[in-house]
Write a structure and sequence with these properties.
The chain is mostly helical. It has 11 helices and no strands. Keywords: Cell membrane, Membrane, Transmembrane, Transmembrane helix.
C-alpha cells in the first residue's frame, strides 16, 4: 500500500487518534439522541436512530472479521493476542473497529519510537490504516449519512429541534468529512508514482466536491420523504439500480461470494448519495449521467414539495432550500471539474496497464511483486 519514501509519521498517528475520537463521538452522540427521543415519547425516532447505528456497525463488523481471517490465511499475519475465538467475541460485541484502532495505534507507536524500521513494517502499518479507512467509508454511508437524512426530516417535517440533535448532526457531518479526507490520503498512498505530488490542495478540493454534492443530496431526499412516505419506495428503486450496476460491473472486492453480494448492496447505498468509480475504469460518461440525474432530482424535490404540498411552513423554507441546493450543487460540480481536470492523479503509460486510460483508473501496486491488496478492488476516486 505504500512505497519507498512514504513513511508512517507521527502526524499520521495523530490522525488515527482523531479518527478514533470522531468515530466514538459519532456513535455516542447518536446513542444519546436516541435516549432523548425515547424519554420524550418519540419511540419511532429513537428506534430509527438506533437502527442506523446498529445496521452500520453490524456491516462493518462483518467485513472487519472477514478481513482479519483473510489476512491470517492469505498473508500469514497472526496476532497471538487475537485468536479466532477472541476475534469472534470482539466483533459480536461490536468493538471490532475500536480494536483495530487500538491495534494500529499501539503498533505504530512502537514502530515510530524505533530507530530501525523496516520497509515491510511501514507497508503493514499503511495496510492497517487503509483497512480502517475502507471500513469508515462503509460506516459513513450506512450510518452517518442516513442519520443526517433522519434528523433533517425530523426538524423540517415535524418542527422538532434540540441542541443534542444539532450536535449529533454536526458530528455526523464532521465524521463524513474526516472519512473522505482519510480515504483520499490512503488512495494517494496506494499509487507509488505520486511521491512528488502535494496532497493538501487536491485533498481539500476533493473534500469540497464531495461535501457540496452530498449535502444537497441529503436535503433533497429528505424533502421527498416529507412530500410522501411512499418516496422511500423510489429511493429503494434507485438503490436497486446502483446494486444491479455493481453486479453488472462484476466487482471482485471480497474473497467470499456472500460477502461480495453484501458489498454490492452497500455500493448501491453509497451510489444513492454520491458517485464512486466501482471498478477502476474510465467513468466519465457514467459520472456525467449520474450527476445530471442527481442534480435534476435535487432541484425537483423542493419544487414538487412547494407545488404538491402547500401547507403552512413549507413556503418559509422553500426558497432558502432551493437556493442552497442550487449553490451547493454548482459549487460541488465546480470543484469536481477542478479536481478531475487539474488535480486528480493520472496513471502514467506502463506496459501492464489495462485498456482504459480514464481519469479514475488505478492499479495501486508497487514495483515489487506483491499480492493484490483489498484497496485495489475497492471504490476508486
Amino acid at each position: 500500500m505504500t512505497n519507498t519514501g512514504k513513511r508512517f509519521s507521527w502526524f499520521r498517528w495523530l490522525c488515527s487518534v482523531f479518527g478514533l475520537l470522531f468515530y466514538l463521538a459519532d456513535i455516542g452522540s447518536d446513542f444519546l439522541l436516541s435516549v432523548q427521543y425515547f424519554k420524550n415519547g418519540h419511540v419511532t425516532w429513537a428506534a430509527l436512530t438506533l437502527v442506523f447505528v446498529l445496521l452500520g456497525s453490524l456491516c462493518i463488523q462483518i467485513f472487519s472479521y472477514a478481513w482479519f481471517k483473510d489476512d491470517k490465511e492469505n498473508y500469514g499475519e497472526d496476532n497471538k493476542a487475537l485468536s479466532t475465538c477472541h476475534l469472534i467475541c470482539i466483533h459480536v460485541l461490536q468493538i471490532g473497529i475500536f480494536t483495530r484502532y487500538v491495534h494500529l495505534l499501539k503498533k505504530s507507536f512502537k514502530v515510530l519510537r524505533s530507530d530501525d524500521t523496516q520497509e515491510e513494517e511501514q507497508f503493514h502499518l499503511f495496510g492497517l490504516a487503509t483497512d480502517l479507512s475502507m471500513l469508515r467509508m462503509f460506516e459513513v454511508f450506512l450510518e452517518s449519512v442516513p442519520q443526517l437524512v433522519l434528523q433533517v426530516y425530523i426538524i423540517l417535517g415535524h418542527n422538532h429541534q434540540s441542541y443534542l440533535q444539532y450536535i449529533s448532526m454536526a458530528v455526523s457531518l464532521l465524521n463524513i468529512a474526516w472519512a473522505m479526507v482519510d480515504y483520499r490520503r490512503c488512495f494517494r498512498r496506494s499509487l507509488p508514482y505520486l511521491k512528488e505530488m502535494p496532497s493538501g490542495i487536491p485533498t481539500a478540493v476533493y473534500l469540497f466536491y464531495k461535501i457540496f454534492t452530498i449535502t444537497p443530496r441529503i436535503l433533497s431526499l429528505t424533502l421527498f420523504i416529507i412530500l410522501s412516505a411512499f418516496c422511500t419506495v423510489a429511493m429503494a428503486c434507485i438503490w436497486l439500480v446502483g446494486t444491479i450496476w455493481a453486479f453488472v460491473e462484476e466487482t471482485d472486492f471480497c474473497t467470499s461470494r456472500v460477502l461480495e453480494h453484501l458489498y454490492r448492496a452497500i455500493v448501491g447505498v453509497i451510489l444513492l448519495f454520491t458517485f464512486f468509480n466501482i471498478k477502476g475504469k474510465d467513468t466519465k460518461v457514467h459520472m456525467t449521467v449520474y450527476y445530471i440525474f442527481s442534480v435534476g432530482q435535487n432541484l425537483a424535490a423542493p419544487i414538487l414539495l412547494f407545488l404538491l404540498k402547500p401547507k403552512p411552513g413549507v413556503p418559509d423554507y422553500f426558497l432558502p432550500i432551493l437556493f442552497f441546493i442550487l449553490v451547493s450543487d454548482s459549487m460541488g460540480l465546480g470543484f469536481l471539474g477542478l479536481y478531475y481536470s487539474l488535480l486528480h492523479p493520472r496513471q502514467p503509460c506502463r506496459e501492464k496497464m489495462t485498456e482504459e486510460d480514464g481519469m479514475d483508473q488505478v492499479d495501486g501496486m508497487n514495483h515489487e511483486p506483491k499480492k493484490p491488496t483489498r484497496f485495489e478492488h475497492f471504490l476508486q476516486i
